[in-house]
Write a structure and sequence with these properties.
Layout (H helix, E strand, L loop, with lengths): L9 E10 L2 E11 L4 E6 L5 H8 L7 E6 L2 E2 L5 H7 L1 E4 L11 H8 L10 H17 L16 H13 L8 E5 L7 H16 L3 E5 L3 H7 L2 E6 L2 E7 L5 H7 L9 H4 L8 E5 L6 E4 L3 E6 L5 H12 L11 E4 L3 H4 L7 H6 L7 E2 L2 E2 L1 H14 L16 H13 L5 E5 L7 H16 L3 E5 L3 H4 L4 E6 L2 E7 L5 H9 L5
Parallel strand pairs: 3-8, 3-9, 6-7, 7-8, 13-18, 13-19, 14-17, 17-18
Antiparallel strand pairs: 1-2, 1-4, 4-5, 9-10, 11-12, 15-16, 19-20
Helix pairs in contact: 3-4, 4-5
Bound molecules: adenosine-5'-triphosphate.
Adenosine-5'-triphosphate (ATP) binds next to strand 2, helix 1 and helix 14.
Length: about 475
Amino acid sequence: MTPDTAPPLIEVEQARLRFGAVKALDGATLHIRPGECVGLVGHNGAGKSTIVNVINGALTPDEGTLRAEGAPVERYGIKAAHALGVRCVFQELSLCPNLTVIENTRIVHRELGSGRGLGWRSTARRIIERSLDEIFPGHGIDSRATVGSLSIAQRQMAEIAMAFSDAGAPPRLVILDEPTSSLDATLAGQLLAQVRRFVDAGGSVIFISHILHEILSTSDRVVVMKDGNVVAERPAGGFTADSLFEAMGSVAKPENAAQARRDLSSAPVLLEQRGRGLPFRAHRGELVGLTGLSGHGQTEMLLELYRQRSGDWLPLRDPAVAFVAGDRRVNGIFHLWSILENFAVASLGDLTRRGLVNDSAVADKGDGWKRRIEIRTQDMNNPILSLSGGNQQKVLFARALATRAPVVLMDDPMRGVDVGTKREVYQILREEAAGERTFVWYSTETEEVCLCDRVYVFREGEIVAELVGEEINEANILAASFQGEAA
Ligand SMILES: Nc1ncnc2c1ncn2[C@@H]1O[C@H](COP(=O)(O)OP(=O)(O)OP(=O)(O)O)[C@@H](O)[C@H]1O
């Protein structure tokens, strides 16, 4: 049976779901057939995570119907979804950090049995190691390590490997919610190849990503969501990156990196660092990119630069440096605070008079940035966790940019940000750089790195190449990232 004639594995019809006043789903319909990869795209807050959480059994729609293999489903939940073969890799990594990879595998696969005896440990170990080896050969992950000790990319790999692993109840539909957001190009390529293998063998995948070329090259069908509804749906071949971008309702023009790049080698040097291979420097007003395979020392250098320039933990009126954290759940957001409090915390020095926070100045500043960076919320006093993942990331951006710090360090900051907003944020970075602010930007997306004025490529903890102006392109970055490895 071809994907077109097979009955859908799962059908969500006319689903409506509200969170208070927010219509997260507003009549959305989505069918998933066996043997197909469905690319799901849309702006931040469009409802993508919400609809996959309905399919995953974590959320029950207020209205609408659900059918599994053609039959209406009355009582659906996480257990029923698991029994149907639905597996999910969440956007916010959801493994237990204090348990090992093996123990987390046991949690995902209830069928591995009870905690009594040690039998399940060796089975779980075999299952997860086989899956990791198949999908990410040479991954270097010790399955006995606690998840909290792994890098964000390794956690993402472990979670992906768990979703595709078979402990007796094989996966039939794997939902990947922004699975490549922390993976470099090589790891992302390995995952996309796994998606195609799984689909070609009859499995189904829902693939959510803001990286349009990944969606177009990997999906059979693309579904576009906007404001809680499906607004376009075509075979992947029926879209180009531009038409997909338009269908999402985005308007920002694509940036012309070559035109925007500036030669600032004669401007004063603001940051300098030695001892990590080639010397690093960043000039005033420069956009400096850090790249190379993920986990090769880029974040460590950003942290070193931050420690050098930040005196202590007190918010200063004139901070020398601001930081946009990459792992937003672990060290970016304050989970129990409102959106406004999360935004304002780095600018309190500016927003305080005689030791008291000026609430109306905080609210004004928050409203200004809400509009400038389009944070999708009705009220900045809502809890931060009420925002979609991409919108939380925008708050972290706004937090750093709203300070007066002349240097902003960014650790893969566009993770989960939709493509329209990325372009807008890039324009904001350019405006701010023209005002002589310096940005050091680590990114796992080569396309983003190519927007910078100067780029440093990292390998094994050291800077192995410096690229400026016309030298900045994907081929040079890849060559430097792998130099000497082919031999
Ligand atoms: N627990 C919640 N409480 C309140 N509002 C919520 C909650 N979860 C989601 N929302 C809202 O529902 C809407 C849809 O969010 P959803 O996470 O589905 O968007 P998304 O398309 O996945 O976005 P992103 O690309 O940023 O991940 C958003 O407006 C979001 O703020």
